[in-house]
């Protein structure tokens, strides 16, 4: 019976064949222990000299790291194994013998591992991170599908920008200038006026010359947009969504979280509702703790971390000054100097994972914002049309996938949370 490592539990005490790679091995004279992986998981294959043909044991002893093979054996329950099972090997068929595999079980520097990212992905830790990323994506589709959202795909090549044209990648679109998208939000607002509740999931690009552990040049965003919804209602959707993906990861990625040595008690606390503080309260809190920051300044990583440390679950910071936020955010009805927005700050120093707001729905006010931000009316006329033809209150937000993966996995740098990271000085592999 041909199967995969993730499915071996169905075949206890039965003989199965698995296509696998040799991740590692050790032997003690009469027994060879093969650490096998097949993409779905890891399992130990035990080859006992006295129980197999001489040729099989010789093959097992000579196997090299990352060689590919078909392994046939009997599935045994084993409580000590991370997967709960091991394989008593009866025969091997080598497909390809690898030689001089560059990533050995010793320590390697980050640059070396990044140069070999195409191979580093095979390691147990990187495998675990990718599986958690996949679960977050699966749970994202589940949440929005179950809550009446339609998936809409905004363009990646755009003629304008959601937040001004700085930090954008320019390209030629035949005879016109174009940009790689930094957000699908403006297009999602148009989609929400057609479909009510929508979400997008796709790559976004920021030409920021930043080297921090929280930044990537190319990253993936989940961007929901909702018609007939105010800011407070949007916050409820956000906390329910983040709670849903956290609980899904806890439920479906137990082996991966164990491989990552993640303290799951911290993720167990991620359940709605989340605490909310205003920007004013956050500034006051930081000043009391000795941080040099004035009202009107944006928060940096140390500020976000200091605020997050006071809570054991994500915290919303609401109502930032209009001056430091995007042109499309709706002013607070009682305090026009601040806007109806919120950033969601993850615990444990992972920073902002969501930015969201209620959008301006008044045509004249949006025109005024165009003037203040020197935005071309020609380029943004279509966006203004959304306020001209049946405008409604609407809100939305964007969640950065890689920061969320980093937080849920407990890994320090976002470069490990995307298969092939694009960094300031890295376009290879």
Automatic annotation (TrEMBL):
Pfam families: tRNA-synt_2, tRNA_anti-codon
Sorted UniProt keywords: Aminoacyl-tRNA synthetase, ATP-binding, Coiled coil, Cytoplasm, Ligase, Nucleotide-binding, Protein biosynthesis
Location(s) in or outside the cell: Cytoplasm
Domain Aminoacyl-transfer RNA synthetases class-II family profile as annotated: residue spans: 130-429
EC assignment: 6.1.1.22
GO molecular function: asparagine-tRNA ligase activity
SUPFAM superfamilies: Class II aaRS and biotin synthetases, Nucleic acid-binding proteins
Matching InterPro entries: Aa-tRNA-synt_II, aa-tRNA-synth_II, aa-tRNA-synth_II/BPL/LPL, Asn-tRNA-ligase, Asp/Asn-tRNA-synth_IIb, NA-bd_OB-fold, NA-bd_OB_tRNA
PROSITE patterns: AA_TRNA_LIGASE_II
Top-rank taxon: Bacteria
Coiled-coil regions listed in the entry: 243-270
Reactions this protein catalyses: tRNA(Asn) + L-asparagine + ATP = L-asparaginyl-tRNA(Asn) + AMP + diphosphate + H(+)
Family in the record: Belongs to the class-II aminoacyl-tRNA synthetase family.
Oligomeric and partner information: Homodimer.
Classification via PANTHER family: ASPARAGINE--TRNA LIGASE, MITOCHONDRIAL-RELATED, ASPARTYL/LYSYL-TRNA SYNTHETASE
Name by which UniProt lists this protein: Asparagine--tRNA ligase
UniProt organism field: Evansella alkalicola
């Amino acid at each position: 019976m041909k199967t995969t490592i993730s499915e071996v539990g169905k075949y206890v005490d039965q003989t199965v064949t698995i296509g696998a790679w040799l991740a590692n091995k050790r032997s003690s004279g009469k027994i060879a222990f093969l650490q096998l992986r097949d993409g779905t998981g890891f399992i130990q294959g035990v080859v006992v000299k006295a129980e197999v043909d001489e040729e099989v044991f010789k093959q097992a002893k000579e196997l090299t790291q990352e060689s590919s093979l078909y392994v046939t054996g009997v599935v045994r329950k084993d409580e000590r194994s991370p997967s709960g099972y091991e394989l008593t090997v009866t025969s091997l068929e080598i497909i390809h013998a690898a030689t001089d595999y560059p990533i050995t079980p010793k320590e390697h520097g980050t640059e070396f591992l990044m140069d070999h990212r195409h191979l580093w992905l095979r390691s147990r830790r990187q495998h675990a991170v990718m599986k958690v990323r996949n679960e977050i994506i699966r749970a994202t589709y589940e949440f929005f599908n179950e809550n009446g959202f339609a998936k809409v795909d905004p363009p990646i090549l755009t003629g304008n920008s959601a937040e001004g044209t700085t930090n954008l990648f320019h390209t030629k679109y035949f005879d016109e200038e174009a940009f790689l998208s930094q957000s699908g939000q403006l297009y999602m607002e148009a989609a929400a006026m057609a479909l009510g509740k929508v979400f997008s999931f796709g790559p976004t690009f920021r030409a920021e010359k930043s080297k921090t552990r929280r930044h990537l040049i190319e990253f993936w965003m989940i961007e929901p947009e909702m018609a007939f919804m105010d800011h407070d209602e949007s916050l409820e959707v956000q906390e329910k969504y983040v709670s849903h993906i956290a609980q899904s990861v806890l439920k479906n990625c137990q082996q991966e979280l164990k491989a990552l040595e993640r303290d799951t008690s911290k993720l167990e606390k991620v359940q709605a509702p989340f605490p909310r503080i205003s920007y004013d309260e956050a500034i006051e809190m930081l000043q009391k703790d000795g941080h040099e920051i004035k009202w009107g300044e944006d928060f940096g990583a140390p500020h976000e971390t200091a605020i997050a440390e006071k809570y054991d679950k994500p915290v919303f910071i609401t109502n930032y000054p209009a001056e430091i936020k995007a042109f499309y955010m709706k002013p607070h009805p009682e305090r026009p100097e601040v806007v109806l927005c919120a950033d969601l700050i993850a615990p444990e120093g992972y920073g902002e994972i969501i930015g969201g707001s209620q959008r301006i729905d008044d045509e004249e006010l949006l025109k005024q914002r165009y003037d203040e931000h020197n935005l071309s009316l020609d380029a943004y006329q279509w966006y203004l049309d959304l306020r001209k033809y049946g405008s409604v209150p609407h809100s939305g937000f964007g969640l950065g996938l890689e920061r969320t993966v980093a937080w849920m996995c407990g890994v320090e740098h976002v470069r490990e949370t995307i298969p092939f990271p694009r960094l300031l000085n890295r376009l290879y592999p």
